[in-house]
């Protein structure tokens, strides 16, 4: 199970190195989530999830406030949520989630990023059946036993709790995301190393060095696309 956390850490490190791009994408995601209901995280669960994620990426308050104010305005930008599935080198599997106001732009760009880097797009469902939607919440400064005790006291069911690299990781069903966080917040824990709703692969593959380099280039190309919000895959990334 440790591989899962390694891939999430690698993803966060990549995003931390491209802050302006990450902040812009969070701005869109916050706007879209706020438009789904009230622009108030206490009454809008989708928005609350996005804001919790934004916090772990240190998204500035000014970016968040701007997106929320935009959502409150009368003008409306229409975004569609799209999911693309495909394959990378050596049969590796990739899921791409996008938010776009121009579908005719997004699909060709995603397809090109696959094709130019040894991959190809598949049909809907060709990859996602090998992934599980999962809530992942990580915190520091607590032991596994302490975290399990907190969750038991709050009567919150989770899939697994483990420690890796001095971080305790909780894996749970997506609908338990808020329950897990509330259990921690009720005992004074408000800072999280990670707070994600993600797609975790059921199995991982290891690529030879040449294919690994090509795969990483493909992932970078996909994540560089303006409309792409998340990229998930089943390749074990090197430490």
UniProtKB/TrEMBL annotation:
**UniProt cross-references to HAMAP family, sorted A to Z:** Transcrip_reg_TACO1, Transcrip_reg_TACO1_YeeN
Residues in domain TACO1/YebC-like second and third? 79-235
UniProt protein name: Probable transcriptional regulatory protein ACFPXP_12405
Q: Which controlled-vocabulary keywords does the entry list? A: Cytoplasm, DNA-binding, Transcription, Transcription regulation
Q: Which InterPro entries match?
A: Integrase-like_N, TACO1_YebC-like_2nd/3rd_dom, TACO1_YebC_N, Transcrip_reg_TACO1-like, Transcrip_reg_TACO1-like_dom3, Transcrip_reg_TACO1_YeeN, YebC-like
**Similarity-based family:** Belongs to the TACO1 family. YeeN subfamily.
Q: What is its main location?
A: cytoplasm
Which PANTHER family does the record associate with it? TRANSLATIONAL ACTIVATOR OF CYTOCHROME C OXIDASE 1
Pfam families referenced in this protein's UniProt entry, alphabetically? TACO1_YebC_N (PF20772), Transcrip_reg (PF01709)
The GO terms this record gives for MF are: DNA binding
At the top level, the lineage of the source is Bacteria
Q: Where in the cell is it found?
A: Cytoplasm
Domain TACO1/YebC-like N-terminal, by residue range, is: 3-73
């Amino acid at each position: 199970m440790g591989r899962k956390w390694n891939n999430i850490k690698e993803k966060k490190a990549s995003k931390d190195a491209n802050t302006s791009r990450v902040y812009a994408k969070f701005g869109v995601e916050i706007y879209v989530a706020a438009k789904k209901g009230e622009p108030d995280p206490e009454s809008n669960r989708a928005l609350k999830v996005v804001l919790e994620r934004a916090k772990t990426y240190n998204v500035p308050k000014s970016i968040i406030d701007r997106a929320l104010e935009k959502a409150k305005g009368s003008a409306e930008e229409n975004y569609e949520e799209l999911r693309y599935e495909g394959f990378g080198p050596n049969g590796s599997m990739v899921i791409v989630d996008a938010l776009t106001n121009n579908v005719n732009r997004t699909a060709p760009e995603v397809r090109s990023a696959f094709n130019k880097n040894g991959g190809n797009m598949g049909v809907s469902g060709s990859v996602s059946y090998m992934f599980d939607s999962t809530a992942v919440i990580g915190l520091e400064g607590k032991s596994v036993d302490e975290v399990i005790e907190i969750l038991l006291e709050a009567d919150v069911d989770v899939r697994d709790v483990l420690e890796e690299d001095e971080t305790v990781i909780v894996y749970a069903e997506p609908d338990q995301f808020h329950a897990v966080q509330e259990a921690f917040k009720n005992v004074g824990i408000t800072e999280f190393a990670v707070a994600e709703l993600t797609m975790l692969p059921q199995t991982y593959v290891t690529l030879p060095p040449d294919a690994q380099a090509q795969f990483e280039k493909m992932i970078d190309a996909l994540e560089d696309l303006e409309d792409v919000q998340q990229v998930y895959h089943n390749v074990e990334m090197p430490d």
